[in-house]
Prior knowledge:
Blueprint: H1 9-22, E1 26-30, E2 45-47, E3 52-55, E4 59-62, E5 76-83, E6 86-93, E7 95-96, E8 101-104, E9 110-111, E10 123-129, E11 137-143, H2 163-177, H3 186-195, E12 210-215, E13 219-224, E14 237-245, E15 253-267, E16 273-280, H4 284-295
Parallel strand pairs: 11-12
Antiparallel strand pairs: 1-2, 1-5, 3-4, 4-8, 5-6, 6-9, 7-8, 10-11, 10-14, 12-13, 13-16, 14-15, 15-16
Helix pairs in contact: 2-3
Amino acid sequence: MSTVGELNEMERNMVLQYVKSQDPQMTVALESGGTQDGTGPSFPIGIPCDKLSVYPNGVFVFDYSIRAIEPLVEKTVRVQFYYNHVGLNFVSRVQRTQQGYAVVVPLKLQRIGEIRSYSKDDFKAVLSYAVKGQKSVELPCLPDREFDLFSRPSWKSVEPYIQSSVQQYYERFSYDLGKQDEDISYLISVCRYITRPQETEAVEGTAKPYDIIYIDTTRVILGSRRGESSPLKLLSNYGIQMEFGVFATDFFKRVIKASVTVGDIFSGKNGQKCFSCSFNGMKAEDERFLYEKFSGQKLTGR
Length: 302
């Protein structure tokens, strides 16, 4: 198989036969990133393997029971899946047929690029912990492009076609937390994250940074697609270093160092997990900086 770029027709036929026999899970997403009227999905829709049929001449048909695809009919989408652990994708148009939602596989497929896009916010973090007999282990964390970190989550951010699932998770998690007198709006971001299907990467199983999906003066919430392999454990402590851009230049950075405790772990059926990490021992001036960054208001009287 070609090492880079597009696959030729013979390779395409091999991939089609693989999909027909192995039934890999796929994702479908609007190619432009969202419909003009705001009603379409903004992140990939998972296609269960038993809801996919492969027809002659390279036509994929998705079962009509996947109602989330309906807003994508007659629109251009990107279809992604794994072939022998290698991420492949193609662009096509969704058509409504008697059998289901159909996309025609083009003559050439492309490999998924190695570089994943993240939020343009000039912000990153690193978790660290000590391992006996070894140097400190570092876990990189980057903002997730789908989440507005420095604002309070609201139900308006939840895509209409997943609101029901998000609401079910929200009710379950809020009941488990039992925090009736506290603001738990951060759970909206948690439930959005774990409702999303797994994204297709360039190579399946490669190590990925943690996704930062929420931060305020008391906690940072990290998302992971690693499932059970994540080294973060409930009630365990970790060091954290966060780096913020202060001006539109790489020369001015605000670095905040503290420790965090994993207070809660939230899991979804798609394999994603979210870790709510509470800050410990943060300096007053760093807390002030986070407050002003999150609220957009100056902190007075402290």
